[in-house]
Amino acid sequence: MSAGSIGAAPARPWYRVLYIQVLIAIALGAVVGWLFPDFAKNDWIKAMGDGFVKLIRMVIAPIIFCTVVAGIAHIQEVSKVGRVAIKALFYFEIVSTFALALGLIVANVARPGAGFSGKADAAAVATYAKQAGEMKPVDFVLHVIPDSVVGAFAAGDILQVLLFSILFGFALMALGERGHTVRALIDDIAHAMFGVIAIVVKVAPIGAFGAMAYTIGRFGPQALGNLAGLIATFYLTAIIFVVVVLGAIARIAGFSIFKFLRYIKDELLIVLGTSSSESALPQLMAKLERLGCSKSVVGLVVPAGYSFNLDGTNIYMTLATLFIAQALGVPLSFGEQMTIMVVAMLTSKGASGITGAGFITLAATLAAVRPELVPGMAIVLGIDKFMSECRALTNICGNGVAAVVVAWWEGELDRDKLRTALDGVVDPSDVETAVTTG
């Protein structure tokens, strides 16, 4: 398929473009949730959003397995895998520190919790605090090791699947030519799985409609009232992080953050509609390969980033912690705020893979730094759903940029493909093209 024929894709009718369909679905969902809240709270409406996320999640484990195994098995030198992993982890920690620091700075300057008058109900957050307390650092390390390979795939735990995939990839690499048949089979399975994604993604507008309608119907527009300041501050901080911090990193690596965001706009809208960054993981990995990043770098960096590079969650934790402290009138010294950064850096990793991870990591951070602030989580409980979307959007932006940067750092970024894709010569919304061209 020629570049010219691919470039002609945007000429198709506007109503067949995925991101436009998702935008319309999100708007309709908000209107339905606002005007018909009882209807929007119906279990079948909620099932639309939940069902789409489940459809995506059912293929995440096999896609990660195939991508990571193929990436490692095709590498000739073992040292390269360790080198890429070390570079990725170093990058994750540096950028995560910027995210945590930015949340603290904005919270101290804007003081969104000052003058807030609300009651904290400890019982409302008891479940989250209990989950956070159960996941200690040693538990997290042991949790990475699955009880069985089948169990890791059945649970869909990204870190467990990633660990087994790395081990299997090294074993397949050691087989040399004897492993050619298995490598070819895994490559074919990966293509088939992306074909499944191409089918599933067609119902993304339905999932986005259901998720948005249920959210607005359940919490109502008034849920944004008293805490609009915190929500606005969080969204503004996330935008500053993406544009300034990630923008500067992207510029150093030789590309524009705005062109990159335009390139992954479909995935961003799917995340916005479903409040889950995992719902766009397979498509993101496919697009990053089309962008010029090597299969091995994408296969290692992106899955690891979903557990170790949660920029949106990091911003949320420091910002929400200071908001709660300000709302309850509990002053935090500079030393305590620095402690929050260190603790949050650890707890953000410890709660990965847990439902409601952002809220749970907040509970873990508060419990470790100032336990008396834990009941104050009830203040932000009602709006956490609205902020989870921003967390997910920031997380996926951060992981996408991380893959490109590590690929550039490793010398495995195809500049011609990068320039062609970001300049819009190739239509990034055509998921089927990504599958057929491999």
CATH superfamily, by name, is: Sodium:dicarboxylate symporter
CATH architecture identity: Orthogonal Bundle
- The fold-level CATH name is Proton glutamate symport protein
Rg calculated over all Cα atoms: 22 Å
Number of separate strands: 0
Q: Strand-residue fraction?
A: under 5%
Integer average pLDDT:
78
Helical content band = over 70%
What is the overall number of helices?
23
Topology as a string of helices (H) and strands (E): HHHHHHHHHHHHHHHHHHHHHHH
Topology diagram in text:
Layout: H1 3-7, H2 18-35, H3 37-40, H4 43-73, H5 78-110, H6 126-134, H7 137-144, H8 149-155, H9 158-175, H10 180-200, H11 204-219, H12 228-253, H13 257-263, H14 265-274, H15 281-290, H16 295-308, H17 311-327, H18 334-350, H19 357-369, H20 377-381, H21 384-410, H22 415-422, H23 431-437
Helix pairs in contact: 2-11, 2-14, 4-9, 4-10, 4-11, 4-16, 5-12, 5-16, 5-17, 5-18, 5-21, 6-19, 7-18, 10-23, 11-14, 12-17, 12-21, 14-21, 15-16, 15-21, 16-21, 17-18, 17-19, 17-21, 18-19
Protein described:
Helices cover 76% and strands 0% of the residues. The chain has 23 helices and no strands. It is globular. The chain has one domain (3-437): Proton glutamate symport protein (Orthogonal Bundle), CATH 1.10.3860. The protein has 438 residues and is mainly α. The chain has helices at 3-7, 18-35, 37-40, 43-73, 78-110, 126-134, 137-144, 149-155, 158-175, 180-200, 204-219, 228-253, 257-263, 265-274, 281-290, 295-308, 311-327, 334-350, 357-369, 377-381, 384-410, 415-422, 431-437.
